[in-house]
């Protein structure tokens, strides 16, 4: 009898259907010589510090650092029954072999090994490595499974990651929380992620816009423009050039060829879904997991953007089926060779739809599932399509001694961009204006074009844009670029992995360090303060990126786990002692409070004259917590996030500008209104007709 352990019940059921285990029991299935059970994710976790010493229940600086020689594990109360069930199945005398079928990756390996070790099992096991839950893929993986020992290095990397994160989180969270006398979670990936957002917010806040003016001359059929620094210069230029002739002094044409984007890995899909639909990274991952368990996409948690040579024929056939069924635009010449590269595929190939995808199955999916599957399908067609080719033209005209420029481009081959256009149509998204090409008439040097009209526009330089989930994922993915002696960038290192980044973002938002405002991800005051009080090395991504490189080296067999763990322990000993030595708790608490006061000042309370602060869910008078004042502006009103600028305007002036996008709780319809403070200093809506009556 063989016992197969999957990670989730849904995956276990798909495998059980293939092996013929059709008899149901509590917590497992049986049949045809197979027992099939599952783990519900992590059944076994690392124990809390109190498991080593009951005195460690209390957080004390003198007890740090906590560095176990041998890590202990525990089974949670919510998962105890399933663990005991699996342990019993492992102990059955008729079970002679185990099959590990948890998710094919670092975390899946850890989940199985912890259960196997905790149960005290010594029976041999093989590894089932699945990239798809299609029945044909399951059968192939069952035939190709390998001895469990072939994945020992993967397990060592997973074990080191878990234990290192435990030590860093437990020690640094307790350290900084005690020093600053408040709960202050610190993590090797979370803290530099918060620092990225804090730094961007600071750049935006400190940005000083510079005005400039753009003077545009209409030459009839096309226009050219010139940029000048002052309004006076713009007016003088307009006056001088009005009614004059423009002389074409240079025409530059450049043929541009753009290759299609690569196939998608998890991070690329999360970015695209956020950009197109505003889905969070976690929403995309959860939806993708549902599609995977339904057999409609390949393994989600991949970091590869290529497929292997042995997949070429299957991929070509799949492309034909998708185009033939109307799920991809027809009439394109696809080249699978663009996406085949064995050297760039590690644990899993790129995200692909499976042969189970049909228009009928697509129609049965929920809205979010449909959206994500459409993006995966489109990326497959796009990555293998023709190049996008166009001619870019720049024209320089002399107008009364001033250089005016005109730009345009002519598409020669739309190629892979057809798939972007088609995807937007399928998602019901209006085409962006920048996707419409600017055409210029055929112009030649020496030609003269009289000015038909002139106008000027005031502009100003723009600050960096706040992070969205899309751009934050990109920043996390390429947090560190290593430059070699030649000036080249041979590799990059990121914060976390494709599989963990969504959880990291959600975690720092739950902790109150960051918040979502529409699509933007902004830093809360707690996050700004945390970044200011921790040491520089914890803020920078270099440390955690180097650890990720070390974990990869452990998995490759080029670094001993003991060496890595020794380095982590040495770092923690040094860091804990340095913070203890150079931070006086009383002074540190005072610094924290001064920093906090400086960061959250929103204005003067209109009720009592004290300070209005920026709290996680509201802008409220600092006296509210003592019951001495009741002034509060909630951060979300009628489904709309109220920005700090709008709150400051309301506090200072008693009214905001018109805010668009409120949603009625009664009808669900959107409406626009101002926020105003009434005579009792409570927030209410004011609509356009009310404003008109007051006037």
Q: Main sheet?
A: 7 strands, mixed
Q: Could you give the order of strands across the largest sheet?
A: 2-3-4-1-7-8-9
Rg for CA atoms: 30 Å
Query: Which structural class best describes the helix and strand composition?
Result: alpha+beta
Counted by DSSP, the helix tally is 22
Low-confidence stretches are 482-490, 691-695
**What share of the residues does DSSP label as strand, in percent?**
15-25%
Average pLDDT confidence is 89
Quantity of strands, as a count: 29
Distance from first to last alpha carbon: 85 Å
The percent range for helix content is 25-40%
Q: Tell me, what's the shape?
A: globular
Give a quick summary of the entry.
This protein has 695 residues and is α+β, with helices and mostly antiparallel strands. It is built from 22 helices and 29 strands.
Describe the structure in your own words.
The chain contains 22 helices and 29 strands. It is globular, with a radius of gyration of 30 Å. The strands form nine sheets. The chain has a seven-stranded mixed sheet, with helices on both faces. It has a four-stranded antiparallel sheet with strand order 14-13-12-15, with no helix packed on it. By secondary structure, the chain is of the alpha+beta class. Residues about 480-490 and about 690-695 have low confidence and may be disordered. Helix 8 packs antiparallel against helix 14 (about 470-475), helix 12 runs antiparallel to helix 13 and helix 16 (about 525-535) runs antiparallel to helix 20. The termini are far apart.
